[in-house]
Design brief:
Elements (H helix, E strand, L loop, with lengths): L1 E6 L5 H9 L4 E6 L4 E3 L4 E3 L2 H8 L3 E3 L7 H10 L4 E4 L7 H4 L6 E5 L11 H7 L4 E8 L9 E8 L6 H25 L31 H10 L7 E4 L2 E11 L10 E3 L4 E3 L5 E9 L5 E2 H8 L10
Length: 310
């Protein structure tokens, strides 16, 4: 099939690579979000998908909105058979959905209908799910509600951050998306409607969502830290400034600290929660680079009974 691939962040690159490597399909063009400011200089930078497509000599389309007439006209000229999508980052209007004969097929990082929305991996980690996966489905106008072509499953490990899990799913999902394109092309794969039961939503995680509540149980604190790593980053307040929590782990045998209460030893930093303590392993003070929590604690000279949080 002739394909137009839509995607933007680094997590979409493995799928693009898999389709470029396929001897059954042609990636005629790539659709991605416009260049965005990045770094301290805030200069405009192309998306990872745009950079990879340019390296491969593939035409790159960067519409401000996918309903722009110039973009739609070019899409109709290319006349793709199918448009595979991975984390494109914009809603596709019906006028765009109607262009490819076999539709737009999204690789979504959950076992649909669970965790429909922008942040399925973060929500799966924060909810304490033991298993997640990826699904390919035909995009329709509802939120991740289209019929499903294929799925794969992936165990969520006890120490997984959302970044760890998303990386594994990106590479495993690349194979699923390529296989889905093969099955659509040869007529052996047919989409099946999602069940109405089991629908959960995964909206974007905000900075406010990532603030740690020290009155919550330690397992909840652990899940928030892992689910919000690397973005947007779990955080708390220390002496009125934000302290990002990069890595922490529950300590089941310590229950002597009040919620948010700090206790620093030579090589360990503990914080009380609503149940047992957690040990801070890595933190990032405001305006500084990540550091070992023990080094941070020595530098700030924690006072006995001092608290984290508002």
């Amino acid at each position: 099939m002739k394909l137009v691939f839509a995607g933007t962040p680094e997590v979409a690159v493995p799928a693009l690579d898999a389709l470029i490597a396929s001897d059954r399909h042609e990636v005629a063009a790539v659709v991605t979000r416009p260049d965005a400011p990045a770094g301290r200089g805030r200069r405009l930078v192309a998306s990872p998908v745009a950079e990879r497509a340019a390296e491969a000599g593939i035409e790159v389309l960067k519409p401000e909105k996918p309903r722009d007439e110039e973009f739609l006209a070019r899409l109709r000229e290319i006349a793709p058979d199918c448009c595979p999508v991975v984390a494109y980052g914009a809603l596709l209007p019906k006028v765009a959905l109607d262009v490819p004969a076999r539709g737009w097929v999204n690789l979504h990082f959950s076992l649909l209908p669970a965790w429909r929305g922008a942040a399925p991996v973060q929500h799966a980690v924060m909810a304490g799910d033991e298993v997640t996966g990826a699904s390919t489905f035909l995009i329709e106008q509802g939120l991740d509600s289209g019929p499903v072509y294929g799925v794969l499953t992936e165990e969520i490990r006890p120490t997984d951050t959302s970044g760890d899990l998303l990386t594994r799913l990106a590479f495993a999902g690349a194979g699923l998306l390529a296989a889905t394109m093969d099955g659509i092309e040869d007529g052996t794969l047919h989409a099946v409607q999602q069940p109405h039961d089991g629908v959960t939503l995964a909206p974007k995680i905000t900075v406010e969502d990532a603030q740690v509540n020290w009155s919550a149980p330690a397992l909840r604190v652990d899940r928030v830290v892992r689910g919000c790593t690397p973005a947007p980053g779990a955080w708390t307040l220390f002496r009125g400034e934000r302290l990002k929590l990069v890595q922490a782990t529950p300590v089941l045998d310590r229950t002597d600290l009040a919620p948010g209460e700090l206790s620093a030893a030579k090589n360990n930093v503990y914080v009380g929660t609503g149940s047992h303590a957690v040990e801070l392993l890595w933190v990032q003070p405001q305006g500084k680079k990540p550091m070992k929590a023990a080094d941070w604690a020595r530098g700030v000279r924690i006072v006995h009974g001092e608290l984290l949080g508002s």
